[in-house]
Fold Methyltransferase-like protein.
Amino acid sequence: MTTFAKTAFSAKNYAAFRPSYPASLYNTVLGYHKAGPAPRWNKMLDLGCGHGLISRAMSAHFAAVLATDPSAGMVKQAQSTTAQENSNITFAQGSAEDLSLVGEDGSVDMAVAGQAAHWFDYARVWPNLARVVGRGGTVALWGYKDNVLVGKEQATRIMERYIYDFGEVANVQGGWSVEGMGRFWEQPGRNILRDLLRSVKPPPEDWEAVTRLEHEPGAEGDPDEAAWQRKTMKLGEVEGYTRTFSCFTGWAEAYADRKARKDGGEGDIIDVMWDEMVASVPEWKAMGDRWREAEVESDWGTYIIMARRR
């Protein structure tokens, strides 16, 4: 995953606008770990730790946490935002495909990856995890995809068109042909995530008690354990979130001359997308320049995969 290493990527914005994880999610994965015959709580491994959100939330349950991320910028952001009371967390630059930083084989009691597992090369990751996770230890992978704006189907369709379409999605500002962000997603990672990692299967010779929970965005009736990423947000927060998409990072690099209005420019693709989205919802449009204060419920597609080391 090279997007987070690009100069156009902002680890600070990622930390500010990416949604956090609810207590129900942590309760689910920790409950699974605790249900083992002899759960141990010595070391947790956080793969693709990003800005350290998961490590901080789960550090109270383990004697030590090793949190790795391939992006130096993410590691720096995690270190700068982690308080001294989380002194049992060690942040380091590293990938899931190379767990040499872990040290002794079988020393990990629980390995987790939140919103990172769709980038992994599992031909290398599964053997690595089988080596470092001790018998009876657990692995928990989770993530989220494509949020829908509940009750605002037209605005959601517009957002999806700008985010996933190839070629022209709008023609504005005196003939500017706006290219959609579809070609800027890194693949196959994005499509793996959009399929809720159904192709990712823990090898049965090493893992047992495999449990999978999933929720498609907008689906009704799923239990809270599966539909764990749903929250009320201001439109300004949703706008900021769309600027953390890796496809936008690629688009902004390709169209470096198109500056956001907030940065003094004439507008980039996110500005144009939100112009159209706001215009599609009468109550948002009626708010004029105050549209960012409107509230909307976002519902993401979500998955959790959990397995126990044989």
Notes: Residues 147-183+232-296 form one domain. The longest strand covers residues 133-149. The mean pLDDT is 94. The two ends are 30 Å apart (CA to CA).
